Amino acid sequence: MAGSEGLLGSRMLEDERALKRLNRDVESARRDGDEVREVAAIDAYNQRLDRLIAREWLLAGLLSYALLDAYVDAHFRDFKIEFQRDPALPEGGVPPARARLGVRWSF
């Protein structure tokens, strides 16, 4: 998680620097009266801004996941997943239930 957050943070800083440079390009094209260059610079600015906003949302999602994971780890650390025999059942009555949980994850 920390690596992903660091990577997103560095990319967002790069985006901020690029947006400042592109804003200067737009202002320069306006001063020169070059409409074609101005439109191209505005398009580049908007595309870079879209990437920055997408990364900000992704970072917010990662941070939310990290907070939720920390909350679950803190509050369910003593949670027992093993099934135990119910002491209310009579001896020799219903045998204890057995359960198996399997998780498979592949890419």
List low-pLDDT spans.
Answer: none
* Secondary structural class: mainly alpha
| Largest beta-sheet characterization | none
Helix content: 55-70%
Mean pLDDT: 84
Number of helices: 2
End-to-end separation in angstroms reads 19 Å
What is the C-alpha radius of gyration, as a whole number of Å? 28 Å
| Quantity of strands, as a count | 0
Order of helices and strands: HH
Would you write up a description of this structure?
It contains two helices and no strands. The chain has 107 residues and is mainly alpha-helical. Helix 1 runs antiparallel to helix 2 (35-75). The protein has a domain at 2-75. The longest helix has 41 residues, at 35-75. The chain has helices at residues 2-32, 35-75. It is rod-shaped, with a radius of gyration of 28 Å. 67% of the residues lie in helices and 0% in strands. The mean pLDDT is 84.
Give a short overview.
The chain is built from two helices and no strands. It is mostly helical and 107 residues long.
Key descriptive features of the protein:
107 residues, mainly alpha
Topology at a glance:
Blueprint: H1 2-32, H2 35-75
Helix pairs in contact: 1-2
